[in-house]
């Protein structure tokens, strides 16, 4: 397994955070198929690491102008790495594509399109300077993860809370797929400097842990984003006393059910916590309530270290459309005890390495060494 990290960065703006994520994805093997700076479209990677130009220190150019994504309606098309022999099984690698497009006015608003089949490789309409590629009519499984409208008349959703721009630390990670346990996933978290209770700009592309996905699932991934994710998984799994699997493409993780079958449907999921009582989730590691029980399970009785709780994605049977089980997260774990955002947990070498990064009531993979700046 090889994780690519960019940690403790402080981009000049929200576009810089997005470009940092793309750069991390490219480091892990994602391909830039085409991009536009809002004026000129390029059908192949250009002079910089992403195609977009980079600053002298190697960071993406988010200052605007030629070769920058910080222009109205700039966009980029990225494709997942090809499957690696002997690593992730076929449902995980190869053709997934994501298209990101910036709002014409605001740096915090974005539109994100997704295709599991690679529908933008031979688009029915190629992208131009301000319009993203349209999906191939034969392979059209396009799904809007953020934003709405049409390619010619797009609308945009808030990826970041419109505050603290330029004063946030951004952390990003992408997995190259060599380990079948969590192939090709990525995450981004941005935290205003010194405000660890105000996490925002969270994005997660989470493959189901190998062996836990529903049998026959051709797309064992979920996508999650939240522009004001103080609670992160807490918001995924619980909202006003109910499992939060009803809120469209905000707050809930999204993924396909029965992908490839005639009745396939993209559905929001609840990220279930360890326990459930009268529709109120009992979440370990919570520090404050909204009706939740503040639970601590203490240390593991053998290792005397914190346990890492698995996160389960499912859609409850009372909802319309397809329902049921999706799988276990391969990227995210719940905290067994209350921790503070910015804490690190030691797994590989207890007390020495920094292997997991705490974000409120959950934790993400970390590089094992770096002291987080938050």
Structural description of this entry:
Mean pLDDT is 80; it is low at 234-243 and 272-294. It is built from 2 helices and 24 strands. Strands 2, 3, 4, 5, 6, 7 and 10 form a 7-stranded antiparallel beta sheet that branches. With 374 residues, it is mainly β. Strand 2 (31-36) and strand 3 (41-42) form a beta hairpin.
User: In angstroms, what is the radius of gyration?
Assistant: 20 Å
Strand content: 25-35%
Q: Give the overall shape.
A: globular
- Structural category is mainly beta
Number of strands: 24
Order of helices and strands: EHEEEEEEEEEEEEEHEEEEEEEEEE
Low-confidence segments:
234-243, 272-294
What is the helix content? Answer: under 10%
Distance between the termini: 27 Å
Number of helices: 2
Major sheet attributes: 7 strands, antiparallel
Average pLDDT, all residues: 80
Give me some keywords for this one.
374 residues; mainly beta; seven-stranded antiparallel β-sheet; six-stranded antiparallel β-sheet; 2 helices; 24 strands; globular
Structural topology:
Blueprint: E1 3-9, H1 14-27, E2 31-36, E3 41-42, E4 75-79, E5 97-102, E6 109-115, E7 143-146, E8 148-149, E9 154-155, E10 157-158, E11 168-175, E12 186-192, E13 200-207, E14 221-226, H2 233-237, E15 254-257, E16 265-268, E17 270-272, E18 275-277, E19 280-282, E20 308-315, E21 324-335, E22 344-345, E23 354-359, E24 362-368
């Amino acid at each position: 397994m090889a994780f690519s990290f960019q940690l403790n960065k402080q981009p000049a703006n929200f576009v810089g955070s997005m470009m940092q994520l793309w750069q991390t994805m490219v480091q892990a093997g994602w391909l830039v198929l085409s991009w536009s700076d809002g004026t000129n479209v390029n059908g192949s990677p250009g002079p910089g690491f992403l195609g977009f130009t980079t600053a002298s220190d190697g960071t993406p150019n988010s200052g605007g102008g030629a070769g920058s994504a910080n222009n109205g309606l700039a966009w980029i098309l990225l494709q997942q790495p090809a499957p690696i022999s002997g690593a992730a099984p076929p449902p995980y690698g190869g053709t997934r594509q994501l298209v990101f497009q910036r709002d014409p006015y605001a740096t915090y608003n974005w539109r994100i399109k997704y295709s599991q089949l690679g529908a933008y490789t031979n688009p029915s309409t190629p992208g131009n300077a301000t319009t993203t590629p349209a999906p191939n009519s034969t392979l059209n499984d396009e799904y809007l993860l953020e934003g709405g409208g049409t390619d010619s008349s797009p609308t945009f959703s808030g990826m970041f809370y419109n505050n603290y721009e330029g004063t946030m630390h951004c952390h990003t990670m992408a997995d190259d797929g060599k380990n079948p346990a969590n192939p090709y996933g990525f995450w981004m978290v941005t935290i205003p400097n010194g405000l660890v209770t105000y996490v925002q700009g969270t994005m997660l592309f989470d493959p189901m842990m190998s062996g836990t996905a529903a049998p026959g699932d051709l797309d064992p991934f979920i996508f999650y984003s939240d522009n004001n994710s103080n609670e992160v998984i807490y918001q995924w799994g619980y909202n006003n006393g109910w499992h939060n699997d009803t809120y469209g493409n905000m707050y809930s993780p999204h993924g396909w059910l029965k992908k490839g079958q005639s009745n396939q449907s993209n559905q929001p999921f609840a990220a279930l916590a360890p326990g459930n009582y009268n529709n109120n989730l009992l979440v370990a590691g919570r520090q404050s309530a909204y009706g939740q029980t503040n639970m601590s399970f203490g240390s593991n009785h053998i290792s005397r270290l914190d346990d890492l709780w698995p996160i389960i994605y499912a859609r409850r049977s009372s909802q319309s459309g397809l329902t049921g089980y999706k799988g276990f997260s391969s990227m995210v774990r719940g905290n067994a005890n209350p921790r503070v955002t910015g804490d690190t947990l030691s797994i590989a070498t207890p007390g020495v390495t920094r292997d997991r990064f705490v974000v409120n009531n959950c934790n993400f993979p970390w590089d094992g060494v770096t002291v987080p700046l938050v």
